[in-house]
């Protein structure tokens, strides 16, 4: 059974152009926050805000190395999100419409 609320933070994280660009950057591999920061005209606190949202959603993993944070995509979580989107857009045996009793009626 799909727990829809588990994906709400993901879609909130994806609903921002800067965060989408960061995800795209991380698709090439792990990056130091300093390298991410160089690509945007934002302050370090603003980057931290975006990274907090991305890590709390589970899309990004952060690890500290000295004074800097290094970030990478959580590939397992990305696959879960892809599967969720695929399942969400298909009529299959797990579709929510199968659990709703409409008595086979169509709209008139």
From TrEMBL:
- Any one GO molecular-function label of the UniProt entry: DNA binding
| The keyword Transcription regulation belongs to this UniProt entry's keyword annotation | yes
Task: State the source organism's domain of life.
Answer: Bacteria
Checking SUPFAM superfamilies in the record gives: Winged helix' DNA-binding domain
- Gene3D superfamilies the UniProt entry points to: Winged helix-like DNA-binding domain superfamily/Winged helix DNA-binding domain
The protein, known as? Transcriptional regulator
Q: What are the UniProt keywords, alphabetically?
A: DNA-binding, Transcription, Transcription regulation
PROSITE patterns, per this entry?
HTH_ARSR_2
Q: Where is the HTH arsR-type domain?
A: 1-93
């Amino acid at each position: 059974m799909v727990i829809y609320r588990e994906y709400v933070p993901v879609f909130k994280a994806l609903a921002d152009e800067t965060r989408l660009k960061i995800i795209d950057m991380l698709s090439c591999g792990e990056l130091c926050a300093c390298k991410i920061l160089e690509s945007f005209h934002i302050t370090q606190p603003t980057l931290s805000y975006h990274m907090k949202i991305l890590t709390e959603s589970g899309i990004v993993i952060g690890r500290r190395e000295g004074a800097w944070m290094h970030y990478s995509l959580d590939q397992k979580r990305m696959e879960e999100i892809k599967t969720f989107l695929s399942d969400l857009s298909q009529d299959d045996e797990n579709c929510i419409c199968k659990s709703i009793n409409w008595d086979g009626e169509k709209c008139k």
